[in-house]
Amino acid sequence: MPRRLLQTFVQISDLHFGDIDAQGSVSYDCCMKTLWTAFPFFGGLVGHDPKALRHLMYFYRNPRKCDPSAKLLLTGDLTSSAKKSQFDRCVDYIVGLLPPPLDDLGLNTGPWLKEAMGDEHADSHQAIPGNHDHWPGRWRWFWLLGGPGAILQQWQPRFPFVGPPIPLSGTDVRLRFLSLNSDAAVWPWGPERILARGNFQNQLRELASALSPVVGDPNEIRVLLLHHSLVYEAKDDDRYQAKSYLGKRWYALTSRLGQLEMNHASRRDLRTLLARCDIPVVLTGHTHSPLVRKYHTLSLERRRPVGYLEARCGTTTQVNEVPSKWPSVVRNRRLDENTLLVHQLYEVEGPKIVWQTHTLQRDPERGFERVAKRGEPWDSEIVVWPR
Predict the structure, then answer these.
(1) What is the DSSP letter of 177?
(2) DSSP string for 340-382
(3) How far apart are CA 130 and CA 82, in angstroms?
(4) What share of the chain has pLDDT > 90, as a percent?
(5) CA-CA-CA-CA torsion for 133, 137, 141, 144, nearest 10 degrees?
(6) What is the DSSP code (8-state) at residue 100?
(7) Is 374 left (phi over 0), alpha (psi -120 to 50) or beta?
(8) Which of 131, 24, 26, 35 is nearest to 81 (CA)?
(9) pTM above the 0.85 mark?
């Protein structure tokens, strides 16, 4: 039996829509150069790249590169600093076209993102907020601290979200998306906000309760979306080591404190949820570095390890080159590459259903292309049915 394609999904993450000037270029606060010189890991503040937006549009709307029936999955950080104008610009780009002077750019996917962020029920398209989207969005000099703005206050009550079952054509199997807000329990004035750590034990308890009626269904495939990575550990990440003395001391301290990680209790309870509710695929973002790899967690109910795939998308449209007019100490620093993930569900001989993931990286001229390297951590697959 040859592989039969059942569904295709395109995962994008960490778009970081920023402020723009009258010509459509990204504009920066005057202190950004100083901040970035000392603390290079504040990359999420630098905003989006219009060229990356164009390349994403070319990929998603080109039937020769992307399945025309592909659904979009967005795993957080729509904005740079949660300003209403940044949310509005992101929504305009996803659902239709950006307003002037960038009115030829947009994915034109329809109103699903507005529905997902409001009170209406969205379909198989899914979107979740990230830590940047929880910022107050109202102070120029003090971005991080404070409660979220009006848009997120309206959006966050819908989490945790249990999507409707999606029938897979020609099978008795259904696909169900689950979504969490991994910043739900982060105190907006505390160290977890500054360190971009996730805290969401309350979300995990609510999701486990909501899934209890369907946990025993052997013909349901569950996929979980959350912003923070389950497997990421700061001590293994050396991308953001600064050259300045202050930056080095800050990096050493924040690495020990688990910058960008989820807290230990949330990590422990998430692994328990994956095993108890049989969730074989976890889609994440946040760290700006892609990772596609299989892991195992112990299931006490089954008395054996069970496998799951974490597919972590890097930043899809954030600026990845420092503006040429900036000081040389900053200009010589290269930022994270733009990436997206393509997920495909296949029916194979057995019969079995396989979830397959590939990483695509943006070339400055040719746009998003599949990474030439093969295998983990760039692509992988896992049998999601039967389990």
Answers:
(1) E
(2) EEEEEEEEETTTEEEEEEEEEEEETTTEEEE-SS-STTTEEEE
(3) 10
(4) 55
(5) -30
(6) T
(7) beta
(8) 131
(9) yes
Q: Report the half-sphere exposure of 203 (CA within 13 A, side-chain side).
A: 27
**Amino acid identity, residue 190?**
G
Contacts of 270 (CB under 8 A, 6+ apart): 204, 226, 230, 262
In the numeric block, the tokens 């998306």 are attached to 177
Q: pLDDT: is 157 or 340 the higher one?
A: 340
Please list the residues that pair with 73 across neighbouring strands: 11, 126
**Angle CA 191–194–196, to nearest 5:** 105
Angle at 184 between CA 166 and CA 283, to 5 degrees: 40
Are the beta carbons of 227 and 130 closer than 8 angstroms?
yes
Q: Tens of pLDDT along 42-97?
A: 677 788 888 999 999 999 999 888 899 999 999 999 998 899 989 999 999 999 98
Asked whether the beta carbons of 42 and 61 are under 8 A apart, the reply is no
